[in-house]
């Protein structure tokens, strides 16, 4: 028993007799219903560390992790404190998963697709090519099997994952030359990770994996011909407009990338129920707010890129997109044929996607086409 | 001073001396940083009433109000209780605004466009024809001037509004005959409220205002020729497929209707800071969850409507949509010319919409077109 718990017992002994009379007087001007139990709230405090896959304070992503820590502290009235570490401060960016798994930190913030080497199903919880929009993946997460399957996939690692952010639809990337046909993909050296990189490879390109901080120089030196990153908000900050002329749409490979919080299962189990709910729901708030931030900042940054820096916007040709779609299904078939958990997750996602796409086409796509000319 | 506050003082007197040694031991296995203050949380309780504009437990909307009450209770550890009243239980649906304004209830849940008679700017905080998608209005609310302007508009009524739900893009409505040109709008008696109704009127139609519960019979008896309601999820439950053959898209008049929570300003001021944050953030969680629910349920209901009930999907002709767009700008010009607050809100929304539309077209619209054929 902690000293703080002893303190609670002390309170109980002293104040217990007065409790019954206290109840009907509480709440000042707001009428108190009869027979309501007084709130029993542990005042035990928890001091958590958060590791992230983002550079400290990185706009949108790193600041989203900061916001999650702030919300957990605020909503818990300070009963949970969260100290945030940027990538490399406590552990390296891609060591966040292991650090939370072994309890070096109690919570982490990152993207599920970073863990595909450990968990082949992981990318399905962030973004797959031609997959969900942000609103669709949230529907699958919260109102279908998404979060349930995600918990199942991470359970062997002692981790509890929660959706905790979304970048919105990303851009297709920065290119030094125009892409007019599949011929232009052949031999193209492009920084593009995950399933998208595998698709590019099967289309004849050369996918390269590089951390964000090295992309500008790799483009400048000609080590790579093209790179994707996120969208206007983050891409403007990296200055890619100085080293590439064409900015391509759509972000076929990441149409609405979900971010994650991962919580050490033992640390979570030690929290009283109300604090568990606060952690879980703080993640939902960051999920909402991060998408709002990306939507608001992307439109501002897009205007700057086009009007101030003269960036040329281009759309991938239909036959290139068609080929990418076909290859995506091949890549997914390969991943799911060798991993039962990935197969289970894709079965759920595929069925949901098939139906929700019809609704999105009928509603959002139909509306956006009509509004386009207003 | 309440009895409960006295109880806190009692705790302070008894446990005060032990506090310094308590701090470093709390949190069990999680390391406690030095110099952290113990959380000081009021245990005072507040008993709130929530009035709503929805029939009790109405799917999506009424259940969203229930969820908001549940979240406030859970996240506050029971320090706020919220008793939910459906429309007509404590006050009528459209008396919710006044009831919360005068403090009969501490909180309300509804849609801002219901209050346009009192506040001409109100519809801009829910949905206007050819306006924001759900993700766009959230960006304007949280990361631009939206919530700030909303607070300003409701302040004279002693109310603090928060976004608290979204239905997603709605449908264009149920029609007994096909709409092939503007000629088919002339003389059409349609249930469509708000700015959408005004647009229909200027296009030669006859807008009718009726509560949801009367729509089925009005369609069946031929008293009206057409009706909009929400989308597949809610429209299936009302059985409109039995009395109308054609289901039209897009929902040009409500492309992403935001719902609201309104809080009595005095009741809010009486809450300690951490409970104020819990109320504000519980609204954000419902905002996220309600859209996820509508997205998940709409796609299921759409399948049922089309495959089981043989509903015919139709799209409004381009020239009809074009005329509706033009008339929308006329309606908005009239509203804003006579009300300075509406003019201020529209100025903010118009500027944001002009830019964010470009981003949405480049990202989401471009992606949805590419995915459409997958």
UniProtKB/TrEMBL annotation, chains A, B:
<feature type="binding site">
    <location>
        <position position="170"/>
    </location>
    <ligand>
        <name>substrate</name>
    </ligand>
</feature>
<keyword id="KW-0479">Metal-binding</keyword>
<dbReference type="InterPro" id="IPR026289">
    <property type="entry name" value="SBP_TakP-like"/>
</dbReference>
<dbReference type="GO" id="GO:0031317">
    <property type="term" value="C:tripartite ATP-independent periplasmic transporter complex"/>
</dbReference>
<feature type="binding site">
    <location>
        <position position="229"/>
    </location>
    <ligand>
        <name>Na(+)</name>
    </ligand>
</feature>
<feature type="binding site">
    <location>
        <position position="254"/>
    </location>
    <ligand>
        <name>substrate</name>
    </ligand>
</feature>
<dbReference type="GO" id="GO:0046872">
    <property type="term" value="F:metal ion binding"/>
</dbReference>
<feature type="binding site">
    <location>
        <position position="191"/>
    </location>
    <ligand>
        <name>substrate</name>
    </ligand>
</feature>
<dbReference type="InterPro" id="IPR038404">
    <property type="entry name" value="TRAP_DctP_sf"/>
</dbReference>
<dbReference type="Pfam" id="PF03480">
    <property type="entry name" value="DctP"/>
</dbReference>
<feature type="binding site">
    <location>
        <position position="228"/>
    </location>
    <ligand>
        <name>substrate</name>
    </ligand>
</feature>
<protein>
    <submittedName>
        <fullName>TRAP-type mannitol/chloroaromatic compound transport system, substrate-binding protein</fullName>
    </submittedName>
</protein>
<dbReference type="InterPro" id="IPR018389">
    <property type="entry name" value="DctP_fam"/>
</dbReference>
<dbReference type="InterPro" id="IPR006311">
    <property type="entry name" value="TAT_signal"/>
</dbReference>
<dbReference type="GO" id="GO:0055085">
    <property type="term" value="P:transmembrane transport"/>
</dbReference>
<keyword id="KW-0732">Signal</keyword>
């Amino acid at each position: 028993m902690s000293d703080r718990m002893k303190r609670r017992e002390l309170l109980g002994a002293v104040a217990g007799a007065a409790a019954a009379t206290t109840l009907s007087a509480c709440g000042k001007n707001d009428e108190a219903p009869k027979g309501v139990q007084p709130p029993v709230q542990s005042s035990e405090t928890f001091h958590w560390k958060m590791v992230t896959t983002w550079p400290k304070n990185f706009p949108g992503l790193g600041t989203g992790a900061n916001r999650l820590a702030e919300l957990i502290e605020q909503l818990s009235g300070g009963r949970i404190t969260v100290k945030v570490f940027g990538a490399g401060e406590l552990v390296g960016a891609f060591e966040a998963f292991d650090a939370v798994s072994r309890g070096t930190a109690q919570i982490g913030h990152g993207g599920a697709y970073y863990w595909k080497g450990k968990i082949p199903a992981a990318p399905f919880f962030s973004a797959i090519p031609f997959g969900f929009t942000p609103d669709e993946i949230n529907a699958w997460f919260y109102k279908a099997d998404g979060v349930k399957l995600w918990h199942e996939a991470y359970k062997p690692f002692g981790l509890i994952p929660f959706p905790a952010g979304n970048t919105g639809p990303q851009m297709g990337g920065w290119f030094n030359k125009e892409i007019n046909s599949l011929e232009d993909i052949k031999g193209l050296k492009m920084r593009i990770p995950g399933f998208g990189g595998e698709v590019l490879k099967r289309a004849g390109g050369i996918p390269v994996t590089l951390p964000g901080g090295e992309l500008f120089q790799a483009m400048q030196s000609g080590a790579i011909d093209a790179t994707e990153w996120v969208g206007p908000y983050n891409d403007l900050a990296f200055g890619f407009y100085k080293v590439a002329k064409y900015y391509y749409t759509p972000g076929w490979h990441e149409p609405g990338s979900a971010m994650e919080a991962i919580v050490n299962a033992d640390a979570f189990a030690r929290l009283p129920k109300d604090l568990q709910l606060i952690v879980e729901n703080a993640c939902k708030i960051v999920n909402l707010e991060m998408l709002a931030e990306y939507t608001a900042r992307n439109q501002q940054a897009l205007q700057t890129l086009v009007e101030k820096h003269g960036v040329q916007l281009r759309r991938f040709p239909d036959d290139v997109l068609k080929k990418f779609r076909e290859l995506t299904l091949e890549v997914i078939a390969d991943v799911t044929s060798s991993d039962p958990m990935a197969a289970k997750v894709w079965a759920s996602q595929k069925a949901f996607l098939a139906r929700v796409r019809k609704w999105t086409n009928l509603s959002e796509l139909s509306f956006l086409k009509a509004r386009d000319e207003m």
